[in-house]
Amino acid sequence: MNTVQLECFLAVAQYLNFSKAAESVSITQPAVSHQIGSLEDELGVKLFVRTSKSVSLTREGIMFISDAEQILKIAGSAKFRLSEKLEDEPVRISIGCHNQAELNVLTPALREMSRLYDDLLPYIDLTPFKSIDNQLKDQKIQLLLSFKSPHKQPFDYVELCRCQFMCLCQKDHPLAKADSLDVDDISGRPIFIERHTCPDEIFALQHRILENGKVDKIIFCGDYESAVAMAEAGLGFMIFPAIGDAYKGPLKAIPIEGVKEISFGVYYLRSQLEQQAKDMLGILKNQFAK
After folding, report:
1. How many domains would you assign to the chain?
2. Stretch 257-264: mean pLDDT, rounded?
3. Do 248 and 276 sit in the same domain of this protein?
4. Are 252 and 271 contained in the same domain?
5. Could you tell me if 40 and 65 lie in one domain?
6. 127 in Cβ contact with 148 (< 8 Å)
7. Are 72 and 211 in the same domain?
8. N or C: where does the chain have the smaller number of CB atoms within 10 Å of the terminal CB?
9. Does residue 176 sit in the same domain as residue 253?
10. DSSP 188
11. With 90 as the cut, is the pLDDT of residue 94 above it?
12. Residue 11: helix, strand or coil by DSSP?
């Protein structure tokens, strides 16, 4: 496995088009196809489904994205460290999160961290896929922001807040007239986040809304960001827990009553936590304690 193979893989995964991928990595399309083929042979799996009209990622291809990005990051960091002589080693901290809502939580915390460490060098791994847990397990990230999983995890966990489910829709949407909603009151066109990027509790509530029989055609989105974009475009409503006041967009957030709040916090490995990660964890806890 080499960096050229990984760069070609990520380019095709981004564009889902071999010609555009070839342009982005500045090699020929046959060369890109060869690199993808040799990578698939080495891994023993197919990463893409290719037809005469389309290219799509396989399940294995989706799972491999974060690994490929991480390997290229490590290779780039190693090259930089070996080619540059730094007088002072920067303070590094690596954090993982799944979506923009979680990423928004980090902004004020990173601002506070920069006051503690002048030479702070953070790395943020933002991926919607649940495989990001592997980055924590493999100690490639130190902290992982996440809703608490209902399944037992081999990590330590600290809760930052309890999150109430909200219905997000445009302010002129029929649902926006209500100050709060019961699940059975929710009707219209839902924008659902697909299962592979969706926390279990959100998926369960989406299914419950579907079962009430009051919804129209469903729009499925691959992640939180695209669901928000669809809702802001007025194409329907979406369901998501409110992480503090992380969402600051134009949509109205209507509380959904009678649904259990879910825990949002930070996963980490206590035995591997370095001082800067401990400081970041403390800042996050104070941020939500206010």
Report:
1. 3
2. 94
3. no
4. no
5. yes
6. no
7. no
8. C
9. yes
10. B
11. yes
12. helix
